[in-house]
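Target protein
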Amino acid sequence: MQRGKPVGRLQGSLIVIASAIFFAAIWSCSLGEQLPSEACFCGCVTGLVAIVFVAITRRIGFSLLLSAALMFALLAISAAKTQYLGTSLFVPDLQYFSNSETLAVIAQYPEIWHYALTGGLIAVFLLLAMWCFERPLGLHSAWHKRWVAQIFAFVLTVGGLFAVFAPGGPFKILMVNNPWGLMVAASPTTSFLLSIHHMRVIVPQPDPAAADRYEWAPVQPVIAAKKPAPDIVVVLEESTFDPHTLSLCTIPQCDAQMFRDDAQTNAHGALRVHAWGGGTWTSEFAFLTSLPTPMFGPGGIYAPYNLAPRISYSLPRLLKTQGYRSIAIYPLDGNFVNARHAYNAYGFDEFYDNNIFHFAWVSTDLDLEHEFEKIYRDERAKTDQPLFFMILTMRQHGPHNDALEKLAAPFNQPLFASLDETRNRNMSNYLARLHGSDEALAAMQKTLFSGSRPAVLVHFGDHQPSFDGLMLKIERTAAAKALGDPYTVTYYKIDGSSADSPRFSYPTLDLGFLAGLIIDVAGLPEGAFFQANALMRERCGGRYLDCKDKELLESYQSHLFNRLHVIGR
């Protein structure tokens, strides 16, 4: 019997240590929540999860340690996502982004995966040690009694979890919160847990009678489309915005032709997007369907999965009715955020991904432009159909942390006396890559406009870079602030080779109107959906969700969802 005492003391000590770590996790969770009710909710869920693990493993210390490890992991991942992308961690993130493509993106951020690897190894070591040295409960009880006790404890605790999450349960005040609050909540654990219920698509249901307030389908004279129809090339510029919107960016290095008006420019200026720091796929969806994802609630951020298969209209679908062949050039694996399937739903005929190109993260926009030229020549040789290209770039993707000495002059030195070393490095990287984009776009325009066929070249920024969260600390100009939220403003530019193409100008243009504007510049028939889209664009001066005339906005949305049925079931 004496030999059992040291083992018992060791087990007791381990349980005490595990308990301390467990309560430290609950304390950390509580500190991160805004309201006492949220802190209590966090503690209750963590405690009940620990009891579930006890019921399964019969090991108290191991269960406490495992629950604590999961809580610390949740807090760390949520903090990283908030810093880099501006939103909390949600349960659907684990479903949609737990794949090798996401790991490839994270691999570009050593400051994330170094900590993640270290923390993961420590957690695994402690859990294995606890499992080996802790004896299960009920070793001397009959097996059937143990099973009955475990099943009873498991069912009772799971029932407790259901009660905690019940709309009429003890935390009902949290359950009925506006789900949009999750997107900006300062309570990471509560946001994550409530996203189980709330992160779903909410299709707008405007009053059907509201559609009659305005005419959305006026009879217009039939105008023949231009012959031949122009080739249309759209370049989504990753993490790109006009740096002149920053108060400090008054130096020549901030200038680029891609932001300037010229003789071939049909429209250009500030573009209102619906993402910050990341979420390119939401900008892809908003551009191609002319439906901004925020109108679908929090679940709209997963548009390639839950919205793309349900759309009724898109730019490629309209172009197909007019004889176009639509081609996507995607610089990542086509499985990333369901891109291949989403682009098929949008109506593309061909999808080239990185399994063909084998781009590296350091591949430049000029490398991508060279691949486009090859594909464009091949496609143009095969068919006389007008072509539509959708091209995504990647070089401007973060992190923007390359050492200054690795950059070409004049970006190989601090450019802004008012910035610290880190933000100077971020800005120099951004501007160096921006000039690479400018060079690639100039080459692309030369290729398109030097041919005999008319062409339209469009490029726009999908969202601003985050600079690992530091972008929020760089002051914006008064002009940028006057447009509204300065952090969701990028740029767009439409150039055409035809001298008789119409010109357009707006104080700011919503991304949901860009596709329709391209159709008008190209001189193509609009169809029912894009006719209404153009009317809304003109009636609210380029504004969409932030249109000040709410009756007009409701009427437009009623026309879309009640008459055109833009989203299927």
Summary: The longest helix spans residues 421-449. The CA atoms of residues 122 and 304 lie 36 Å apart.
